[in-house]
Amino acid sequence: MNVSKDLVAASATPLVLSILSQGENYGYAIIKQVRDLSGGQMQWTDGMLYPVLHRLENQGLIKSQGRISETGRKRKYYRIEDKGTVVLKEQRNQWMLVYSTLKQLWEIKPCLT
Amino acid sequence: MFDLNNAINSWRMSLSEKQTCAKSDIDEMETHLREEIDSLTASTLSQQEAFLVATHRLGDTDSLAAEFAKVNTSILWRNRLFWMLAGILSYFVAKYITGIASTGIVVLAWFAGIRGHSLGVIDVISTVVFFLAVIFVFYQIVRRRDTQGELFCEVADKPWGKFLLFAGVVVIIAVTLAATILAQAIMVRLGGVSKYGEIAIFRAYAGFVWKIIMPLILLVVAIRLRPSRLRKAGT
Description:
- The complex is a heterodimer.
- By secondary structure, chain A is of the alpha+beta class.
- Helix content of chain A is 56%, strand content 14%.
- In chain A, β2 (62-68) and β3 form a beta hairpin.
- In chain A, α1 crosses α4 (82-106).
- By secondary structure, chain B is mainly alpha-helical.
- Chain B contains 10 helices and no strands.
- Chain B is elongated and about 85 Å long.
């Protein structure tokens, strides 16, 4: 099952913020985590993550720091800022609302009439 | 034989040609690419196969560049401004070098006993030849290097490089102006004011012809360097 492009784009921000709220991380690992959590079903075009990260950084939701990894590569690590935590909370409420609305509609209800 | 570093370099090149990604953006994605290739080669894939899969997963360079363009709106304009300024500076350098060379030739011709209209003709020909030579040198530098102005960056990145660039511009302008004054002084002292006035008139005629020819030369170069030609050659 492929998730539609619009939904992928819309969920990118809460996904990235949620992953970063668990601790700082870098691009490749973020994508890997999304892939693993969705059982490989949510397939991003990997490169699209980076413009998202940079946009979030421009908005002051996350902050990046370049460091040398244990394998000797130059990596850019991102961590969530206070403003990002606030936005994540808002996004979480919105997504929960959408989810609970759809869930009620799709639940199999006993026919009472 | 497949060379991973070569392949990654040409991937970087095709991305930087789009001029919407900063160098740090491309660096970050290169790290991603290499980590993906490492994990793919750890399973059964060869380096070449891993490179193909990893670049495919990362997304084609066109849509990546388009996505980055939305975030990096200022980078595209910075690049354009850079090339405009580089063009203006190159023009001044070309003009000054041409000026000093043609003045030198005219003075030499005058010493050789050439007078009258011939001086004007010599002035035009030497100006055209020197200007073409300078433009040809610039053209070769741009063509050999990639389109991000790497030679300029290499020099400008170093502290002594900046000093060298400033000093170079000052020296070229100062030497040209000094040489022009010197040439005029020599001609006035040795030939008298009326002779010098005669030469100045012929040089003015030469300037008239040259100012029509020069934009035409620049137009020819611009047509040869037009972007659509590059795209056709690339496919």
